[in-house]
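Limitations

Structures in this collection are predictions, not experimental determinations, and the ligand pose is part of the prediction. Treat each record accordingly. The example that follows, with iron/sulfur cluster as the small molecule, is included so readers can see exactly what is and is not provided: the inputs are given verbatim, and the output is the predicted complex.
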Amino acid sequence: MALKQLPIVPSGDPGGLAESANAGVQRINRPVISDATKIDPIVILFCPDGAISLDESGFVISYKFCKGCGICAKESEGIVMVPEYTGPKGIF
Ligand code: SF4
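Predicted complex:
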Protein backbone atom coordinates (compact mmCIF):
# COMPACT_ATOMS: atom_id res chain seq x y z
CA MET A 1 0.00 0.00 0.00
CA ALA A 2 1.48 3.28 -1.09
CA LEU A 3 1.58 6.12 1.37
CA LYS A 4 0.19 9.45 0.29
CA GLN A 5 2.80 12.12 -0.19
CA LEU A 6 1.25 15.11 1.51
CA PRO A 7 2.82 18.56 1.67
CA ILE A 8 3.87 19.87 5.05
CA VAL A 9 1.59 22.84 5.55
CA PRO A 10 -0.60 24.20 8.34
CA SER A 11 -3.76 22.14 8.61
CA GLY A 12 -5.92 24.96 7.38
CA ASP A 13 -6.16 28.62 6.69
CA PRO A 14 -6.39 30.70 9.88
CA GLY A 15 -9.71 29.81 11.38
CA GLY A 16 -10.40 27.19 8.78
CA LEU A 17 -10.88 24.40 11.31
CA ALA A 18 -12.37 26.43 14.12
CA GLU A 19 -15.71 28.06 14.54
CA SER A 20 -14.58 31.59 15.17
CA ALA A 21 -17.45 32.24 17.52
CA ASN A 22 -16.43 29.30 19.73
CA ALA A 23 -12.65 29.56 19.65
CA GLY A 24 -12.33 31.95 22.57
CA VAL A 25 -15.23 30.45 24.50
CA GLN A 26 -13.75 26.98 24.77
CA ARG A 27 -10.28 28.20 25.75
CA ILE A 28 -9.19 27.67 29.36
CA ASN A 29 -5.61 28.75 28.78
CA ARG A 30 -4.19 31.03 26.13
CA PRO A 31 -0.71 31.10 24.62
CA VAL A 32 1.38 34.18 25.21
CA ILE A 33 4.67 34.99 23.54
CA SER A 34 7.16 35.31 26.38
CA ASP A 35 10.32 35.56 24.27
CA ALA A 36 9.93 35.85 20.50
CA THR A 37 13.65 35.23 19.95
CA LYS A 38 13.29 31.66 21.25
CA ILE A 39 10.30 30.65 19.12
CA ASP A 40 11.03 27.91 16.62
CA PRO A 41 9.31 28.95 13.35
CA ILE A 42 8.22 25.37 12.72
CA VAL A 43 5.66 25.84 15.51
CA ILE A 44 3.51 27.55 12.87
CA LEU A 45 3.03 24.11 11.33
CA PHE A 46 2.05 22.51 14.63
CA CYS A 47 -0.93 24.77 15.34
CA PRO A 48 -4.03 22.82 14.31
CA ASP A 49 -6.01 25.98 13.71
CA GLY A 50 -3.41 28.04 11.89
CA ALA A 51 -3.63 30.64 14.64
CA ILE A 52 0.08 31.44 14.59
CA SER A 53 1.54 33.47 11.78
CA LEU A 54 4.70 35.37 11.06
CA ASP A 55 4.64 38.84 9.57
CA GLU A 56 7.10 41.69 9.33
CA SER A 57 6.55 42.54 13.00
CA GLY A 58 7.22 38.97 14.15
CA PHE A 59 5.11 36.10 15.43
CA VAL A 60 1.42 36.79 15.85
CA ILE A 61 -1.13 34.63 17.68
CA SER A 62 -4.73 35.15 16.61
CA TYR A 63 -6.92 34.73 19.68
CA LYS A 64 -9.95 34.75 17.44
CA PHE A 65 -8.97 31.31 16.15
CA CYS A 66 -6.77 29.86 18.92
CA LYS A 67 -8.60 27.16 20.88
CA GLY A 68 -5.99 26.97 23.64
CA CYS A 69 -4.78 23.42 23.03
CA GLY A 70 -1.24 24.28 24.18
CA ILE A 71 0.57 22.43 21.41
CA CYS A 72 2.56 25.52 20.49
CA ALA A 73 3.81 26.02 24.05
CA LYS A 74 4.74 22.35 24.26
CA GLU A 75 6.62 22.36 20.95
CA SER A 76 8.51 25.63 21.22
CA GLU A 77 10.27 27.72 23.77
CA GLY A 78 9.22 31.34 23.95
CA ILE A 79 5.49 30.57 24.23
CA VAL A 80 3.79 29.97 27.57
CA MET A 81 0.19 29.15 28.44
CA VAL A 82 -1.57 31.44 30.87
CA PRO A 83 -5.09 31.14 32.32
CA GLU A 84 -7.87 32.63 30.25
CA TYR A 85 -10.40 34.51 32.31
CA THR A 86 -13.69 35.61 30.87
CA GLY A 87 -14.98 37.11 34.07
CA PRO A 88 -13.73 38.05 37.49
CA LYS A 89 -10.39 36.37 38.19
CA GLY A 90 -10.87 32.74 39.15
CA ILE A 91 -14.38 32.50 37.74
CA PHE A 92 -14.80 31.19 34.21
S1 SF4 B 1 -2.76 26.96 21.81
FE1 SF4 B 1 -1.20 27.30 20.24
S2 SF4 B 1 -1.28 25.47 18.94
FE2 SF4 B 1 -3.19 25.51 20.12
S3 SF4 B 1 -4.66 26.59 18.79
FE3 SF4 B 1 -3.72 28.14 20.12
S4 SF4 B 1 -2.00 28.98 18.96
FE4 SF4 B 1 -2.62 27.03 17.99
